[in-house]
Amino acid sequence: MHAAEARGDSVALVIPAYDEEANLPRLFRQIEEAFRRTGVTGPVIIVDDGSCDATASLVRNYRGPLRLDLVRHRANLGLGRALRTGLRRAIAYPKVEWVVTLEGDTTSDLGALGRILRAAQEGADVVQASNHHPRGTLLGAPLLRRLSSRSVSQLMRLASGLDLHTFTNLYRCIRADLLASAFARHGDGLVSSAGFSGVTELLIRLGRGGARVVEVPVVLDAGRRSGESNMRVIPTTFGHLRIAAHAAHARVVAAR
Fold first, then answer.
1. 5-59 confidence digits (pLDDT tens)
2. Is 1 contained in some domain?
3. Residue-range definition of the domain harbouring residue 143
4. Whole-angstrom Cα distance, residue 153 to residue 137?
5. In angstroms, rounded to a whole number, what is the distance separating the alpha carbons of residues 89 and 12?
6. CA–CA gap between residue 203 and residue 207 (Å, rounded)
7. Average model confidence (pLDDT) across the chain
């Protein structure tokens, strides 16, 4: 794929959002600037996951240059299911060749979008924004959160056998035809976890399925967020332990 081909309508953004009223105006400005720099003009799909605030109204009333596409869950179903809904919506666009997923709380480093797209153009199937990469950084998060995030990624690396530093960051770029094939094979089981662990589950399914995954180091700054994180620690921890157990079991079965 040539550089010009990863621009324009060939790139779609998918953003799960739950009660992100305080963050969306700033996020839209960041995306506008990133699109100006990279030449992307494709759809920006906002999956409102049963928000109780004005998230949906902000999307409907937006009057800027972005092509926003609002999809709503009537109830809060969890990040994993919101991600799955957004991915299915993105691959339904006939011109979309790459799907970029990112956080709705402005913690994703949109300054890295150009580097991520270049890595995709150079032959990757999945480009993972990696804050745990030796040249990446995680800022603004409490010590316990930083340690748990790094520990989960180390556990997933051991369990899955994938040579990656970061598994839990939603910010990534995926080939649309790869996603379509994966959905055809796995159905909704491609992202079966309802919560935050669905982000990790998707990456492991694609990587274990043979996708070429490349990491791009980024800065993840939790201090950019307005309000508290929506992640619930205990359910997310158990969700990741379940995924690690399944990944390790799959490796054992494959080795027989």
1. 457 899 999 999 999 999 999 999 999 999 999 999 999 999 999 999 999 999 9
2. no
3. 7-255
4. 14
5. 10
6. 6
7. 89
Query: Crossing angle, helix 143-160 and helix 197-208, to 10 degrees?
Result: 30
Amino acid symbol at 239? G
Taking only the tens place, the pLDDT of each residue in 197-210 is 999 999 999 999 99
Domains in the chain, number: 1
Give tens-digit pLDDT for 78-111. Answer: 999 999 999 999 999 999 999 999 999 999 999 9
Residue 37 within a domain: yes
Residue 241 within a domain: yes
**Owner of token pair 């603004």:** 140
Specify if 2 maps to a domain: no
Give the residue carrying structure tokens 């105006």. Answer: 25
Enumerate residues 6+ apart whose C-beta is below 8 A from 90: 12, 14, 43, 45, 96, 99, 176, 179
Whose CA is closest to 7, among 31, 41, 33, 45? 41
CATH (domain of 236):
3.90.550.10
- Helix, strand, coil: what percent of the chain each, to 5? 50, 20, 35
CA distance 122 to 125: 10
Q: How crowded is the C-beta side of 233, counted as CA atoms within 13 Å?
A: 8
Bridge partners, 1 (sequence order)? none
The backbone region for 39, taken as left when phi is positive above 0, alpha when psi lies in -120 to 50, beta otherwise, is left
Kindly report the CA angle at 151 between 13 and 217, in degrees rounded to 5? Answer: 45
